[in-house]
Each structure stands twice: as structure tokens, then as C-alpha cells.
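Posting here for the record, re: NAP.
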Amino acid sequence: MTAEIISGKEVAKAIRAELAVEVAKLKEEHGVVPGLATVLVGENPASVSYVTAKNKASKELGMNSFQHTLPAETTEEDLLKLVDELNKNDDVNGILVQLPLPKHIDENKVLCAIDPDKDVDGFHPVNVGRLVIGEEIFPPCTPAGIQELIIRSNTPTSGAEVVVVGRSNIVGKPISIMMVQKKEGANATVTVCHTRTRDMAEHTKRADILIVAAGVPKAVTADMVKPGATVIDVGVNRVGEKPSKKDPNRMVALLEGDVDYEPVKEVAGKITPVPGGVGPMTITMLMRNTYRAAKLRV
Ligand code: NAP
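Prediction output follows.
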């Protein structure tokens, strides 16, 4: 049996269409246009492309986008001053500081300086706490995207065995907390694996839903997957280069997930591809959080 492909591209498109309607309604009924401020320090090429995509998505949904691009040598004090101004600016509903920050800036200090009610990335300790007690306002974007893919692919979660590979603060830990909550689209029995897990395959083979966020190509192979399982591959690994489809003279990154896709596709019931799986959902969830932040204010 070949697995059904869960297209993050298609699901993201559907959610963005729903959001555009909500954004227009907010404007019509309350005269409020959600505004996202992005802050980029330095010129890391991956960060530049992420921030560009986030601003483009805001505009496409009819939201305001305020782009702040600062030189790599910006001091921590100046960055904190900008965050403070954005906290006080009523046109700004969401603040996104693109990570990683240059080494001389304390990332934690900057993230904690963002007003929790504008923390659309969901990384402020107040929002992490809200997530743990099941009262989240801004779930972190990648885990929120994973959960939406699970729900919208009609994968049953109540009582399901969910195994998460990876325990990072941005993916593994939050998605494991979200899936264990006493809520729709959750109510699962969750196991979290990491590099000290004794026999990972023993756990992954039990999973009805297997979520892999290890950052290691082919960390999960076909013999580690239960037949019929739903497999969500969060990994984005640059494994080489390939000619661009649009311009064959230009080379672009060749991406691979954490799951050995082709063989696993023959065992799993449903699977997300890389690219085109979790990736497109992350920015969409950022847009949803920005809309929620604006809605909270009215
Ligand atoms: P991370 O901070 O490097 O964490 C990786 C986690 O995986 C760690 O907890 C590590 O365990 C565990 N791990 C690594 N190798 C393992 C192995 N062989 N077996 C079991 N566990 C293993 O990574 P991350 O930030 O969570 O990201 C994970 C992947 O998702 C990366 O490829 C990243 O690019 C991708 N990602 C994609 C998106 C998206 O929007 N599509 C967003 C975020 C991340 P220890 O804790 O023991 O070290």
C-alpha cells in the first residue's frame, strides 16, 4: 500500500483562504487591520528568505507588514529599544524577531522583552506556560502547523499512540505537550525520543502518529514504522544542490527530510513530503497568530 500524501501546500492554501476572509471581516466590522512587525538583524541568507516570505504572506492576506532590517553589528541595547517601541505601537499586533540573532546578542533576553500579547511566535515563557496548561493563545508555529496537518488529514488522535522524535523547545517539546492535552485534535498517549533513547525503533514501531523532528536525514527508516501509521516529517536538511526548475542555470538547495521518504511511503498510511509538507504550514500559523493578536484587541 502506498501512503496518502498530506500536502502542506494545499492545507496551507485552504487555511490562508479562510484567514483572508476573517481579516477582511475584522477590517469591515472593527476597522482593524492586523499588523506584523518583523525584525531581522544581519544578512543570514536563510533568515532573509524567511523574513521576506513572512512579509509577503502578510500582504497577501491583507495584513500590514512592518519590516525592520538592522545591521549585524546592532547592539543588544538598540534591539531591545526597537522591541520596546514595537510593544507600544498600536498598529503592531505581532512581533517576530527572526532567529538566530548574532552571537553578541542574548536571544533569550530579546524574546522575553516582547509583550506576551504580541508574541506571535509563541516563544515567550508566558506563552510557553499558557501552552502547558492548555490555555494557549499563540501556539508556536511549526507545532501548530503539524497539529493542523494531523487534524485536516482526518487522522484520529484520541487514544492514539503518538511518538515524537526530538525534544527541542521549538518543535519536539511543544508538539508533545499539544498532543497530550485534553482537547479535540489531541488526547493522545505521547512518547518523546531523543539521542539518549535506548531503542528508538521499539518506540517508533508502536506509533499510530509518528512526528520526526531530529534534523538528521533518514533518521527514520521503513523498518521503524508501523504499517498504516501517519508520518509527519518536520526535518529540513540541505543535502546538496540541484538546478532550479524556473532557471536551470541557477542552483538551489536540495532538501531532504528526516524520514527515508520513498521506502517509508510504502509502509505508512499517510505521510508529509519534504519540501511541501510541514514547511508551508509554519508561516501560515504565524499569520493565524497575528490575526488572533489583532482580534484579541477588539
Ligand atoms: P534541534 O534543536 O537540533 O533538535 C533536534 C532534536 O532531535 C534533539 O532533541 C535531539 O536530541 C534529537 N535527535 C537528533 N538526532 C537524533 C537521533 N538520531 N535519534 C533521536 N533523536 C535525535 O532541531 P529542531 O530545531 O527541533 O529541528 C528539527 C528539524 O526540523 C530540523 O531539520 C529543522 O530544520 C526542521 N525544522 C523545520 C521547520 C519547518 O517549518 N519545516 C521548523 C523548525 C525546524 P538531543 O536533545 O538528545 O540532542
